[in-house]
Amino acid sequence: MQRKIEVGILGATGMVGQSFIKFLQGHPWFELTWLGASDRSAGKKYRDAAQWHLGGETPANVADLVVQESKPGNAPKLVFSAMDASVATEIEQAFASAGHAVVSNSKNHRMDPDVPLLIPEINPDHLKLIPLQQAKRGWKGMIVTNPNCTTAVLAMALAPLKPFGITKIVMTSMQAISGAGYPGVPSMDIVANVIPYIGGEEEKVQQEPQKILGSFDGAQVTPLPAKLSAHCNRVPVVDGHTETISVELSAKPSETDLLAAFQNFSGVPQERRLPSAPPHPIIYMSQVNRPQPRKDVERERGMTVFVGRLRRCPVLDYKFVAMGHNTVRGAAGAAVLNAELMVSEGLLD
Ligand SMILES: NC(=O)c1ccc[n+]([C@@H]2O[C@H](COP(=O)([O-])OP(=O)(O)OC[C@H]3O[C@@H](n4cnc5c(N)ncnc54)[C@H](OP(=O)(O)O)[C@@H]3O)[C@@H](O)[C@H]2O)c1
């Protein structure tokens, strides 16, 4: 790429906003030049507006940038969104209407029928919704979303199994506290404890994977017709969501077929060597006690989903464990990979 593409972040002062700033450090295609947040932060230098939570000092490339109001106008064409869900609907729409490409991490537009809910290894063809979205809404810009962090890990682990006909899924999550933002869950609640409830999480996880794994016929996405039951739990882990998954598969494949499907899984980001694409989007670990968040979550820049413990399930057909980085593959890294795919498709020309 001759010249880097300028990018901005809406919600730049929050936890996910900070993950974006960290993930974009040294990006070969994108240069971060614009930061937006609420009126509470606008007008202040980033170092004064945001308390940096991710280790080390506030990165030098953003420390002296002045935070802007979240209004379209002087922002770059490509903006990542990590805004509070209470305000994301209207602000993201205003940016898309004004011609910006909004690559959002917020839940607000994920299930809109004309908005791609994208994981580039799984459903790159869903980007073909964009012309329909623009025609329907009269937008010059666009909104593209990435899934909830728990969905991201689950959908990645299920994608290699789609050719075997997924009909039922039962998933139990052990979710890291970083997924709750900052300050997040009170320490008195989470230290040495498990909280068997995360507000709104099971509802999101029970519908997003079917849209991602669904098929696009040129006009709409038909969700994968699979039943999904999710149990979502918060556990005292800093980063990395672990999920135990049981599946029913209509083709009744052998264990060898499934292992090969996990090991050979790859997609458009790997073919095109997109900058944030991990060489292997899924790594199958054969050790009986892996993956583990503390040992594996930072590998491959947090962009790989680790799978292990594949075995027969006496209730459904097979069961296994999956683990991925919730603020990278489940948030900032996911959105940056989405933007890279959009660039490679010419959507930002
Ligand atoms: N945490 C995760 O792992 C995770 C994962 C996936 C998705 N998400 C989603 O990502 C979004 C951000 O999550 P978070 O944990 O980063 O939240 P957060 O730390 O509370 O940050 C929220 C951000 O929204 C901004 N904001 C609030 N009100 C605003 C307004 N009226 N106008 C413009 N900006 C406003 C805040 O700016 P100020 O600092 O100026 O208030 C801040 O930058 C949420 O929608 C969340 O559901 C989070």
Provide key terms for this protein.
Rossmann fold, alpha/beta, binds NADP nicotinamide-adenine-dinucleotide phosphate, Dihydrodipicolinate Reductase, domain 2, 27% helix
Task: Give your account of this protein's structure.
This protein is of the alpha/beta class. It folds into 2 domains: 5-147 and 332-344, Rossmann fold (3-Layer(aba) Sandwich); 149-324, 2-Layer Sandwich (Dihydrodipicolinate Reductase, domain 2), CATH 3.30.360. Helices cover 27% and strands 22% of the residues. The chain is built from 13 helices and 14 strands. The strands form 3 sheets. Strands 3-2-1-4-5-6 form a 6-stranded parallel β-sheet, sandwiched between helices. A 6-stranded mixed β-sheet has the order 10-7-11-14-13-12. Strand 4 (78-81), helix 4 and strand 5 form a beta-alpha-beta unit. The longest helix is centred in the first third of the chain and has 13 residues, at 85-97. The radius of gyration is 19 Å and the shape is globular. The relative contact order is 0.15. Bound molecules: NADP nicotinamide-adenine-dinucleotide phosphate. The site of NADP nicotinamide-adenine-dinucleotide phosphate has 30 residues, from helix 1 and helix 4.
